[in-house]
Amino acid sequence: MDELNDELLKKITNNKIQPPHRNFKVEKPQQIFVPLTFESSTEEVKAWLEAKSFSKETVEHLGILTGAQLFSLNREELEKVCGDEGNRVYSKMTVEKNQLEKSRGESELQEIMKRRQERIDSAN
């Protein structure tokens, strides 16, 4: 019994000191930035879908839409067209839409501030 315990203890401590060698490598695909906007063409929408690693079927079904058409779809419509991947498309699309609205809001604010500054300058 002591021999068994000693052997087990050696195995456990060996694995902690030197973890077993694993013969696999996980390669991450290189991230490609493809923007999606309301003005995106069908080619740009297709490139965005491919860059986000959606299935071939999803790319084929949604790649015929423009950016504005894609943004107009709701979660239920995407689920009908893409099946299980519809939620993921909706999620990624919502992120893109929020970023667009945020940048658009910042641009509008800058434009308003610029006009006000011009009024102030012209008044003086």
Structure description:
- The protein has 124 residues and is mainly α.
- Helices cover 68% and strands 0% of the residues.
- The protein has helices at residues 2-17, 42-51, 56-62, 67-71, 75-82, 86-123.
- The model has no long low-confidence stretch (mean pLDDT 84).
SSE blueprint and pairings:
Layout lengths: L1 H16 L24 H10 L4 H7 L4 H5 L3 H8 L3 H38 L1
Attribute tags:
68% helix; elongated; mainly alpha; 6 helices; 124 residues
Task: Offer a quick outline of the entry.
With 124 residues, the protein is an all-alpha fold.
- How can the largest sheet be summarized? none
- DSSP, total strands: 0
- Give unreliable regions as ranges: none
Q: List the helices and strands in order.
A: HHHHHH
Shape: elongated
Radius of gyration: 27 Å
